[in-house]
Amino acid sequence: MRQQMRKRSAVRRKMSSTTKSKSARPARRGPGRPAGEKSDDSVAILQDVALDLFSQRGFHAVTIKDIAKATGLNAALIYYYFGSKEDLFQQSVQVAVDRAFEQFETLAQGHTAPDQIIRDWIETHIKQRELIRKLVQVSLDYSKMEHRVPETDAAIRQFYDRERAVLSSAIRKGVRQKLFRKVDPDQTTEFISTFLDGAMVRSLIFDDFNSSKAIRGLQNFILSNLQDGT
Fold first, then answer.
1. Do the domain assignments include residue 198?
2. Helix (H) or strand (E) holding 222
3. Whole-angstrom Cα distance, residue 204 to residue 40?
4. Helix, coil or strand: residue 184
5. Best label site of 11, 170, 196, 217, fewest CB within 10 Å?
6. Rounded-to-integer distance, Cα 99 and Cα 101, Å
7. Where are the alpha helices (DSSP H) in 108-146?
8. Is a pLDDT exceeding 80 seen at residue 11?
9. How many independent structural domains does the chain possess?
10. Distance CA 45, CA 38 (A)
11. What whole-number distance in Å separates Cα of residue 200 and Cα of residue 131?
12. Cα(56)–Cα(4) distance, rounded to whole angstroms?
């Protein structure tokens, strides 16, 4: 009888130990899913490299295998994070837009004068010249695509909408405070935006074109023109 009780006790201890070890075991991650910061790092690397390749070769010429080879990451991991090449393209464009405005916000920190806000936005195109060049390049390539994606359209449009809001608001404020002469804010904003795009496109066509010098010239021209006669 005592021997049977000892056996039962031993079985209970074994079952208890097994249950504890199972409950203490961490949950398994899904296939291909990296842990913690590694996933964030991988996403950032993929977005950066994808933007480079898309701007150099065009959307249709770049494959997921190309991106995997350039990053050293598994192609299955790219599909895991982004689902498709179109999703990766859209998110890469969105990241480029966000980074351009982060640079502007850094430059404009503490600035409230309308002339300085305009100066800061134009200066952003010098500080982030390569990034914005890539954004313009992929936008041009994307505009020729037969099948458009609403999310990508929105990401590209967002850049110009935010630019318009920054510039037109600063111009209106300057006119209201009599720091600028009376001008059409929307027309002036469109002129600035078009010149900046043109400088980026020209730099893609001619290797020897100094876009930074041209943009600096625009900066001086616009501000002197706005302040003329005030």
1. yes
2. helix 211-227
3. 31
4. coil
5. 11
6. 5
7. 114-127, 129-143
8. no
9. 1
10. 10
11. 10
12. 78
Contact 12, 20 (CB under 8 A): no
Residue 184 sits in which domain range? 87-227
Question: Using one digit for the tens of pLDDT, what is the confidence trace for 114-150?
Answer: 999 999 999 999 999 999 999 999 999 999 888 888 9
Instruction: Of 183, 170, 135, 174, give the one whose Cα is nearest residue 156.
Output: 135
Instruction: Kindly report the CATH number assigned to the domain that includes residue 221.
Output: 1.10.357.10
Question: Can you give the C-alpha Rg of the chain in angstroms?
Answer: 27
> Can you give the pTM of this predicted structure?
0.78
Residue 184 lies in a domain: yes
- What are the residues whose beta carbons fall under 8 Å from the beta carbon of 54, sequence distance 6 or more? 62, 89, 92, 134, 138, 141
Query: What pLDDT, in 10s, does the model give residues 39-59?
Result: 778 999 999 999 999 999 999
Distances (CA, A) of 142 to 58, 77, 82: 8, 25, 18
Asked, for residue 25, whether it belongs to a domain, the answer is no
Per-residue tokens: 179: 């720091």
